[in-house]
UniProtKB/TrEMBL annotation:
Assembly notes: In the native structure, TdcB is in a dimeric form, whereas in the TdcB-AMP complex, it exists in a tetrameric form (dimer of dimers).
BP GO terms, sorted: isoleucine biosynthetic process; L-serine catabolic process; L-threonine catabolic process
Lineage of source species: Bacteria, Bacillati, Actinomycetota, Actinomycetes, Kitasatosporales
Organism this protein belongs to: Streptomyces sporangiiformans
Family: Belongs to the serine/threonine dehydratase family.
Annotated metabolic or biological route of this protein: Amino-acid degradation; L-threonine degradation via propanoate pathway; propanoate from L-threonine: step 1/4
Protein name: L-threonine dehydratase catabolic TdcB
PROSITE patterns according to UniProt: ACT, DEHYDRATASE_SER_THR
GO MF terms held by the record: L-serine ammonia-lyase activity; pyridoxal phosphate binding; threonine deaminase activity
EC number: 4.3.1.19
Length: 409
């Protein structure tokens, strides 16, 4: 890697990315490129998925971690490596270290999903649970590095990491040479920066769009300020891009080479995840679905052919269940209704008959009979319904009101 005399930050070049690609031969998969007919119709041009969710360890993180660890000096390898992560980076470091014969220790938050903890251990790392938020976990890992001499492997703020992630960009150009727009999620910025270096060096005409969750978007204010700035309490279901401050090294590259950074809502993310599962038959985590969320929210703003990078597929099953329900609600396919009825024999059966006529599928029913708000002969019923879209939801509400029910919510 070369260094800038202006600010001493490392500069990543196309040669660095090509060197990383050679290093990763036989280690990282050349992941599939899959077309999406649904999004292609929506955008009005071909849309393809770059399926890094099918990469070893379930995300792109193996690429950068392997290049970073492979570049260590013999004495550094002997000291071992340490990382802090709630999931994808942890697994990437663990597998890369095992492949290279390097001892690894990974600090993870105490609330990290059990499947991710188990996978990290399976790949060969010693896992230490510490802290309830990633900042506490990161501090513990850095303290461990200072005490033991282990090399700290940063998830995104290092030139070798960025060069490794940039190999995704080279593969995109090889698999879809006619690409006009690449859409990629941004957390700390390592993946977007790497792709930008690779693609802009060879095809400066390709537009690169970064995507952040609106409630955890540190890049827009940082780009406005011209330097990385921190945001307080980033909160999003997309853990993979929930980063409070851009990395110094990727920020400079993103600022220079990425054409736009836009944001998406939590509803957009859950709808995108649901689309990937139903339409593409791909399990994608919320961060990995962020490019799809951007395409769904404003499809007319993307010139095709478009490549959306699905950066990872490591999603906790319990979170997946909640997100899918949220996505169905956002798409008008899941409706929760609270209403009052007269508490008499057969009243519930009559209510269900009304719902049957409008073809609403009842998933769950709960009763409240003792509440100060209710009259002596009243009951409150909460229904969870599977519906067919916003229009059907409106039809269900109208049918209930026309049948004489008081719909509270």
């Amino acid at each position: 890697m070369s260094y800038s005399t202006a600010d001493s930050l490392p500069t990543v070049t196309l040669d660095d990315v090509r060197g990383a690609q050679k290093m990763l031969t036989g280690v990282a998969r050349v992941t599939a490129m899959e077309g999406s007919r649904y999004l292609s119709r929506l955008v009005g041009a071909p849309v393809h998925f770059k399926c890094e969710n099918l990469q070893r360890t379930g995300s792109f993180k193996l690429r950068g971690a392997y290049v970073r660890i492979a570049g260590l000096l013999p004495e550094e390898r002997a000291a071992g490596v340490v990382a802090a992560s709630a999931g994808n980076h942890a697994q990437g470091v663990a597998l890369a270290s095992s492949l290279l014969g390097v001892r690894s220790t990974v600090f993870m938050p105490t609330g990290a999903p059990l499947p991710k903890v188990a996978a990290t251990r399976h790949y060969g790392a010693e896992v230490r649970l510490h802290g309830t938020v990633v900042d506490e976990t990161l501090a513990a890992a850095q303290e461990y590095a200072a005490e033991t001499g282990a090399v700290f492997i940063h998830p995104f703020d290092h030139a070798d990491i960025i060069a490794g992630q940039g190999t995704v960009g080279l593969e995109i150009l090889e698999q879809c040479p006619e690409v006009r727009t690449i859409v990629v999620g941004i957390g700390g910025g390592g993946l977007a920066a790497g792709i930008a270096v690779a693609v802009k060096s060879l095809r400066p005409d390709v537009r690169i769009v970064g995507v952040q969750a609106a409630s955890a978007a540190a890049y827009p204010p940082s780009l406005s300020a011209g330097r990385p700035v921190s945001i307080e309490n980033p909160a999003t279901m997309a853990d993979g891009i929930k980063v409070g401050r851009p990395g110094d090294v990727p920020f400079r590259i993103v600022r220079e080479l990425v054409d736009e950074v836009r944001t998406v809502s939590e509803d957009d993310l859950s709808s995108a995840l649901l689309l990937c599962l139903e339409r593409a038959k791909l399990v994608v985590e919320p961060a990995g679905a962020s490019p799809v969320a951007a395409l769904l929210s404003r499809p007319e703003e993307f010139e095709g052919p478009v490549v959306a990078v699905l950066s990872g597929g490591n999603v906790d099953p319990l979170l997946m269940q909640r997100i899918l329900r949220h996505g169905m609600a956002a798409g008008g396919r899941y409706l929760a209704v609270r209403l009052r009825l007269t508490d008499r024999p057969g009243a519930l059966a009559t209510l269900l008959g009304v719902l049957s006529v409008v073809d609403a599928n009842v998933l769950d029913v709960s009763h409240v009979r003792t509440d100060p708000r209710l009259g002596l002969t009243e009951a409150e019923v909460e229904l969870h319904l599977e519906t067919k879209g916003p229009t059907h939801c409106a039809e269900v509400g109208l049918a209930l009101r026309e049948a004489g029910y008081t719909v509270i919510d």
